[in-house]
Write a structure and sequence with these properties.
This protein is mainly α and 330 residues long. It folds into 2 domains: 188 residues, 3-Layer(aba) Sandwich (Rossmann fold), CATH 3.40.50.1110; 122 residues, no CATH class. It is 62% helix and 3% strand. It contains 17 helices and 3 strands. Helix 5 packs parallel to helix 7, helix 14 runs antiparallel to helix 15 and helix 15 packs antiparallel against helix 16. It is globular, with a radius of gyration of 20 Å.
Length: 330
């Protein structure tokens, strides 16, 4: 699932999917949508971290989006196809059969940094090139393997054909990543593809205690707890931030799974505390690495919604002090 750079925590693609599924299913459901994308990854790079950032979650549903970076950075199309297949095969073998394949909405011909790439020019533009390089294969394998296709490229182009003014509303100025409105727009269209799958999903054999233990013992989470106490959280979260963001996502997700799978008040309360602190760290990573006050402020508000539920924890006051100080600097 895309990591959604350039937008606030709470307005990422994964956040809107989680929100809309919860609205549909009701508050008695605990929906967890993990943002496990890593900026710039090719399919080969995604495959290298598949076990850590996907399979270890034992997900019920996986949404797969590769192909844009491959079209620019992969050595050739055959390598993209090879590793894309490997990802699908590994997910089916080790995690779930419920896989949704996505195309990307656009590589905007006027805005994208690779608009003058010789490969793109040979095919008559970036969009024609990505259609050839990755989208044609993604559509082919979805049909051949009987997987769900979410063709965001077609959805996007149908939308801007009907409403040309939505182009700037949905796509950031880099010509590829989604705005907050874009994230919500594409999440809204994805949810109807997910809903029919839900009755088919099965419970995994990992119990609540195991998920809680994995959330508690996540090394990045433990380092964040220590850094919060020693007042060097900002220094810690501004180094190797992508890895830390991915690991903190895992703590949040595993804590939510522990809550979902337990009816013991002690486990639920411990998991809720870990989830809230992980949300604080996720928002802090975004805030510390952002130069935009609006993005930072929205990320802070998202975290506060969780932190307020565990206001008794001594770390919560420290979070509010950090947020106040950093937002004052922006």
């Amino acid at each position: 699932m895309s990591w959604s750079p350039g937008v606030a925590i709470g307005e990422r693609y994964s956040d809107f999917i989680e929100q809309k599924l919860t609205e549909h299913l009701g508050e008695n459901w605990i929906v967890d949508v993990a943002a496990c994308g890593d900026g710039g990854n090719t399919a080969a790079e995604g495959f290298e971290r598949l076990e850590r950032d996907c399979i270890s979650y034992q997900p019920h549903i996986v949404v797969l989006c590769f192909g844009a970076n491959d079209s620019i950075r992969a050595p050739d199309r055959e390598q993209f196809k090879l590793f894309y297949r490997k990802i699908i095969d590994s997910v089916r073998e080790k995690a779930t059969k419920h896989i949704i394949l996505e195309t990307i909405p656009t590589l905007d011909e006027k805005l994208h940094s690779q608009r003058s790439n010789p490969k793109a020019l040979f095919y008559g533009g970036l969009e024609n090139y990505v259609e050839f390089f990755s989208h044609s294969f993604i559509r082919e394998i979805a049909q051949r393997e009987n997987l769900i296709l979410y063709d965001r490229f077609k959805v996007y182009h149908q939308e801007i054909e009907e409403n040309p003014q939505t182009r700037e509303r949905l796509i950031q100025k880099d010509g590829v990543h989604l705005t907050e409105q874009g994230n919500e727009f594409f999440a809204q269209a994805l949810v109807p593809l997910i809903i029919p799958i839900i009755p088919q999903i099965h419970q995994f054999q990992i119990n609540a205690e195991k998920y809680l233990e994995q959330a508690q013992l996540n090394p990045v989470y433990l380092e964040c707890i220590q850094s919060l106490k020693t007042e060097n959280l900002k220094e810690y979260l501004t180094e190797s931030q992508n890895l830390k963001r991915l690991m903190l996502q895992k703590t949040r997700s595993f804590a939510r799974r522990a809550m979902a799978m337990s009816d013991e008040e002690k486990i639920i309360n411990e998991a809720k505390t870990i989830e809230a602190l992980a949300c604080g760290f996720i928002a802090a990573e975004k805030i510390f690495n952002s130069q935009d006050k609006k993005t930072a402020d929205k990320s802070k508000n998202w975290a506060i919604n969780y932190l307020q539920k565990v206001s008794f924890h001594p770390g919560v006051k420290k979070f509010f002090e950090y947020f106040s100080a950093v937002l004052t600097e922006l």
